[in-house]
UniProtKB/TrEMBL annotation:
Top-level taxon in the UniProt lineage: Eukaryota
Pfam families per UniProt: Glyco_hydro_56 (PF01630)
Enzyme Commission numbers on file: 3.2.1.35
Family according to the record: Belongs to the glycosyl hydrolase 56 family.
UniProt name for this protein: Hyaluronidase
Catalytic activities: Random hydrolysis of (1->4)-linkages between N-acetyl-beta-D-glucosamine and D-glucuronate residues in hyaluronate
Example of a GO biological process term: hyaluronan catabolic process
Organism of origin: Oryzias sinensis (Chinese medaka)
Length: 394
């Protein structure tokens, strides 16, 4: 029997599958028989107030980012976990010492312990715990733009404790103390969480990052630069302690319906998979990709079906363990937006829901460029996908 000819898109997906085959397997899924899960994490209670029903059947877990205890996914924002040092450049205010060198680690961990007890019950139920600390990055060289304030305050701190050092030595001291304190704060915090709630998968939102912007350039490939990959390698201590990774693939409006959206997403997920393999464990920690129903730079334009494929479809094909569809309160604050959200839910249900074939271990992904995608041995190993044939016959 002759093999069917495959399109360029199908060949690319096959390449993704087999290029990932050297990676170690991922630990079994949190939800039995669901190697790829869709998690809703947006305040849909607004829909209830507006009397607009939503069918959330496509999602294995429906959660909200509001401060509600006992959820499958708990997100710890900066004010919900301990005493996170940061600077509010808009308000020109310093909180909890401003930089990690000035933080009180003991008091931080005491408060964090109580907050973990409050938000996550003591039973052994599975779930995700996401630490969302974004004000500063743990690597000195990645604190650019508005985050450069942390470098400036760290230099001032170094000058205060060692005023007679040459300037070049002061800069080195500032960098070393900042990275040491930041590492200690993050390590102790995530270790506390894992120790108290080991059945949850813990990690930091947005890490690893790829910084693969510049999609407006003609030669855009979406690849993470060698420089960024080397920097991410320096965070091995974090990958060794994390029990899940939570990269973000939020799309800018300028990527709408562009093939570069898939390049942007693909390389971010691949970088997460690369760093997940760095600790050299017999298994790889799961990767849950953060996405949004809307484009990231506004609150009224929902992602097209093509872009949902570029985010959810790419993530699933690459071997992610799931996608978290996140949204804030301002995203869903009127009836027009809520009704548009129903359409997105329907697209999710009818176009992207992974359905199990009756009396079979096969799963079918509908409408992903008319390809049937089947994950094999997905529960015991990393979710991989094989393209079986083109143009589903109706």
């Amino acid at each position: 029997m002759a093999l069917p000819l495959l399109s360029t898109g199908a060949i690319c997906i096959l390449a993704l599958v087999f290029s990932a085959s050297a990676l170690p397997p991922v630990e079994p899924p949190l939800i039995h028989d669901h190697p790829f899960v869709a998690i809703w994490n947006a305040p849909t209670e607004q829909c209830q107030r507006l009397d607009i029903p939503l069918d959330t059947a496509a999602f294995q877990a429906v959660t909200t980012p509001t401060n509600r205890p006992g959820q499958f996914l708990t997100i710890f924002y900066e004010d919900r976990l301990g005493l996170y040092p940061k600077v509010d450049t808009m308000k020109r205010k310093i909180y909890k010492g401003g930089i990690p060198q000035n933080g009180n680690l003991t008091e931080h961990l005491i408060k964090a312990r109580g907050q973990i007890d409050h938000y996550i019950s003591q039973d052994s139920s599975p779930g995700l715990a996401v630490i969302d600390w974004e004000s500063w990055r743990p690597l000195w060289d990645q604190n650019w733009g508005s985050k450069r304030i942390y470098q400036k305050l760290s230099i001032a701190h170094a000058l205060h404790i060692a005023p007679f050092l040459p300037l070049t030595q002061t800069f080195k001291l500032a960098k070393r103390l900042f990275q040491q304190a930041g590492r200690t704060l993050m390590e102790k915090t995530i270790s506390l969480g894992i120790g108290k709630r080991p059945s949850r998968r813990w990690g930091f939102y947005l890490l690893p990052d790829c910084f693969n912007y510049g999609w407006d350039k003609s030669n855009y490939t979406g690849k993470c630069s060698v420089k960024i990959q080397k920097q991410n390698n320096q965070l091995l201590w974090l990958w060794e302690r994390s029990t899940a990774l939570f990269p973000s693939v939020y799309l800018h409006k300028s990527l709408r319906n562009s093939p570069r959206a898939a390049l942007f997403v693909r390389n971010r997920v691949q970088e997460a998979m690369r760093v997940a393999a760095l600790p050299k464990r017999p298994y790889m920690v799961p990767i849950y990709v953060y996405s949004r129903p809307l484009y990231r730079d506004q609150t009224q334009l929902f992602e097209s079906q093509i872009d949902l494929i570029s985010t959810i479809g790419e993530s699933a094909a690459l071997g992610a363990s799931g996608v978290v569809m996140w949204g804030g309160m301002k995203d869903y604050n009127n009836k027009v937006i809520q009704k548009q959200l129903i359409v997105v839910f329907e697209l999710k249900i009818h176009s992207f829901k992974v359905k199990k074939k009756e009396n079979s271990r096969s799963f079918l992904g509908k409408n992903i460029k008319d390809l049937k995608l089947i994950p094999f041995d997905a529960v015991k190993t990393r979710l991989t996908w094989a393209v079986t044939h083109m143009e589903e016959k109706k």
